[in-house]
Design brief:
4 copies of one chain form a homotetramer. Chain A has 344 residues and is an alpha/beta fold. Helices cover 41% and strands 16% of the residues of chain A.
Chain lengths: 344, 344, 344, 344
Amino acid sequence: MFKTNEPIVIYPGSGSGASEAAYVNTLSPGDRIIVFETGHFALQWKNIAERLGVRVDYVPGNWRSGASEDELESRLTADTAHEIKAVVVVHNETSTGVASRLPDLRKAMDRANHPALLMVDAVSSLASFDYRHDEWGVDVTVCGSQKGLMVPPGLGFCAVSNKARAASKTAKLPRHYFDWEQIVTQNEKGFFPYTPATNIFYGLREALEMLEEEGLANVFARHARHAEATRAAVRAWGLEIVCEDPREYSSSMTAVFMPDGHNADALRGVILEHFNMSLGVGLSKFAGRVFRIGHLGSFNDLMLIGTLAGVEMGLRLAGVPHREGGVMAAMQSLAPAPAVAHAR
Amino acid sequence: MFKTNEPIVIYPGSGSGASEAAYVNTLSPGDRIIVFETGHFALQWKNIAERLGVRVDYVPGNWRSGASEDELESRLTADTAHEIKAVVVVHNETSTGVASRLPDLRKAMDRANHPALLMVDAVSSLASFDYRHDEWGVDVTVCGSQKGLMVPPGLGFCAVSNKARAASKTAKLPRHYFDWEQIVTQNEKGFFPYTPATNIFYGLREALEMLEEEGLANVFARHARHAEATRAAVRAWGLEIVCEDPREYSSSMTAVFMPDGHNADALRGVILEHFNMSLGVGLSKFAGRVFRIGHLGSFNDLMLIGTLAGVEMGLRLAGVPHREGGVMAAMQSLAPAPAVAHAR
Amino acid sequence: MFKTNEPIVIYPGSGSGASEAAYVNTLSPGDRIIVFETGHFALQWKNIAERLGVRVDYVPGNWRSGASEDELESRLTADTAHEIKAVVVVHNETSTGVASRLPDLRKAMDRANHPALLMVDAVSSLASFDYRHDEWGVDVTVCGSQKGLMVPPGLGFCAVSNKARAASKTAKLPRHYFDWEQIVTQNEKGFFPYTPATNIFYGLREALEMLEEEGLANVFARHARHAEATRAAVRAWGLEIVCEDPREYSSSMTAVFMPDGHNADALRGVILEHFNMSLGVGLSKFAGRVFRIGHLGSFNDLMLIGTLAGVEMGLRLAGVPHREGGVMAAMQSLAPAPAVAHAR
Amino acid sequence: MFKTNEPIVIYPGSGSGASEAAYVNTLSPGDRIIVFETGHFALQWKNIAERLGVRVDYVPGNWRSGASEDELESRLTADTAHEIKAVVVVHNETSTGVASRLPDLRKAMDRANHPALLMVDAVSSLASFDYRHDEWGVDVTVCGSQKGLMVPPGLGFCAVSNKARAASKTAKLPRHYFDWEQIVTQNEKGFFPYTPATNIFYGLREALEMLEEEGLANVFARHARHAEATRAAVRAWGLEIVCEDPREYSSSMTAVFMPDGHNADALRGVILEHFNMSLGVGLSKFAGRVFRIGHLGSFNDLMLIGTLAGVEMGLRLAGVPHREGGVMAAMQSLAPAPAVAHAR
């Protein structure tokens, strides 16, 4: 799933724990890192770093686009002393539905010829759309069990490059639970240094078999198709997609702005009450202004239409100004009339 | 669920076995009964009876309407010798989506003052829409576990009136497995005469709790609402509903005619292939001409829209002539614009 | 499992239903059959036959030994008119722990050169010890899902020889639900004539994989070993095993006589109360005199010792006269001191 | 379960993570604490503390007795500067089967009138035998989900006193994931600061219902009874129990010394191979010298006898010198002959 030959460390814990693991294994108190402000989860990465005593160069963003490769290149080039130890990018910003273009960011780091580690939050992208830990030169990929991997929450993952493991030798942040060296070492002997969340492993084994059965390329195509149909619905409703750049559309979820003067949480409440469906909340500075439609994991065309119908009926019931026909547009996107039908 | 104070016999078996039980416990070889031809499952009742050596007065029907109370009254009135021992009605004809009007049929029997037993197949109506074993004077109500009761197949039920139990004292059809007296007697002591399908009982207990939690009236209202929305979709597509009489619309499923020259199984194949959804097949003389949409059991608004979207997209992909907008009509039916919204 | 190449019919139902199926598919009203009185379940076969209008030659037995091949040969030889249509043998009498020697019975039928069908109740032997439908020339083997096959109750099986299928062509007992021809015919096309107990099939598939993984020979050896250890315990307690002939010891369960003046149900009650373990009840004429220890299905050495310990502690608590040391004898039987240990 | 009115913080994680949480929330780099060397898990607590930059006064122990109240009192009394910030005691040492006497330790702290926090590892005692967070004045009680609470591993717990929460205000160890204040604060609003291991919560709810149904006093009595029967077996075998002081016997597991010259792991291998039962390994300095018998959680008399039989048969098969009769002694302990029986 990670497309890597390097070790993957599995913690009993959440994706948030795996983020902490990325830091405490590679950094020392006072180290500088770059975090791109792409949304709420980028902010979390900034906060975690600062709580651990790491200094953060927080690259401002408008929450509607991904990390900028130009900005990255210029900042790294300027850091001739190589003070910056790591660059943190949230691959798919779950709060905005914007997916940063990792290959372009990697190229920017290479052009700058800078040795900073590349840390990527792939919590809501892994196993939903294309991800390549080795090929993209990622040093730490952080993930959780409960999204694209389709198992209950309770596992946090770090895929760890050799360069990141080397960094851990000199990293001085105190660590025990999240120390990845003891896990890698014990795993090689078939053990864990402490009790693993065994039962979730059984689910994970089955989930991996399901993903392989479908074929990862087909899984990605399915999510891309659902994302496109979702955007077709949003456009038909006359609402605005948060993500500005089509190159950065997320395949796993879509965030949508409410019309001015209408509160997303009121809409979400109506939909929950009438249709027992819970949309994603607008996070941090998007609170009340944005709702989010998830379309990842074990999900098919008809579940997507049901989901979008819940939104469309909710918009009507809540009195939110919109055009009808989003569901029809999504159906047209999923199942366009075959060429032969035009002749009839 | 049966709305009865009389015993309910539970067999390890299917609804088809419970039908056989209704016969072998109450009839003797050569007895005459009336079976109304309402569709495929009525035909099954006729066949079972004949295989067991029972003579069947098969009242012809066009598979688009329920049992006729006038026909019933005239036939029973004509039978002054009281040769007819039982009247068989399939409450909800799963092959046609037509629900016979049991209270009217009961009244016809009462007007004819005829002692025949009333046997009802409630396999696809029980726990989905109104059913009243005692109030309607039903003598044997036959059901299975896998539809409105929402548990795996493997249980057959007979609710049995005192009159039916009395009939079993003189009934001469050979019987052992389906003999209900030994079951009723042993049940009173907490036993079964042979190994029951224990594990399904646990599911049944939970299902009954779920139905009670929702409230049976709410369960019925939910199914009625889904049936109405389904019909709105069918009408919008310009297709024809099999059931002719609105008083007989089924709340648990809807059968739909294909346009002439188009095969229902081809459509069903396209939908199965593209959307992994399996519609009901046209049975017996409806083979190829009819497809059936189920909307019973644990089912909600968004699942219904997903289902109807699968049909609508399938119609398009299969090149079946239809108007678009069935899904929109269903959404309008489920969630009409609130009055306050008109003011905007 | 049946060691057959002939069709196996699967009913939603119990083993008792499959017994009825064996009769109604092959016999006509008034037909004569032989049933060996080996215990309670043989009595059930007799009762079912008589309820269906079949005449039974009931060969008396003392409930402590299996069907007699000499008795069978002499009865069949005497029946020169070939009036006897079937011979019924309960392979493993669950009420007594006596396993009839089927190969010897088959040879007796062959010596008598008699065309009667051989019907075998393998409910509590199949998948627990050796069974060979084809090699032993059995015509109908009856089984259920809930013993050696280790899945929930709810399936009844008939393995059916060509000779039995031929007999069904002229058999006149009325039948619908248990008619095996319609099932065999529909199964060939991938269908069932009525709703099958689908969910138990999933369990069955897994159970068959487990049995194949262990290897059927190993499964049989395991049960034989547990049966021998159980008998070692019974002997050590000074109690009497019901089965008289060591050639007929059952591998799946052991029935034990209580000392005179002591009631088995009192003992069973003490054990249930103190150890939450439910021993088999003494059936019919063994009521109160016999308790039964099951050791079949998914069962291992330590579960057996726990079971026997429950019996031994129960005997003590209930004040039943016995010698201690049954559990120790069973442990000695399961794990005799290795040869090398004697040298110490 | 904790017998507390103070908040209980639940982490997605292991008990080892909850230990780290106890430290990072209450201590600052360079702080001094006392850890009693009671066995392997006490050593773990020492190691974790040192990795986090905390100085440990490690009170030596022989791994056969619990923490000494006299030693504790004298050390605290000597610390007039109140440099010692916390005292760590493993309640039930899973490596030795020794349960420290917490009420006596609490009294010693009170006599010394010392403000150190009391931190207790209750991983293998909670819900198995008596535990009282509030009454015993414990400041942090650490536990996991997979032992007495009977659910899958994946949850770590900290019950936290007001004094401990107050300490967290000045504690300077860096923390994010294990920071308990954000969890307590968010829990009050019905949230978690990051994704909790939701599915294990459902299991936990059911487990708590089971414990309440049985009654906690009965649960404790059951474990005490099983522990006493286990010791009866060990004594009968002529082997030596690790725990020296009967006041400190553990109710949840029993550790046993091998005879000199015999390796515990060889015995464990024989038992695993023959009986598919995995005994606890000897940890750290007990490696090869000790095996451990667990008798906690969802466990009954017959499972205990099965377990002990596996040990006794394993001792024989592995050629380990011992006396037979351990299982008989355990049965005698569990079910002594009733008084009335003596009269017979």
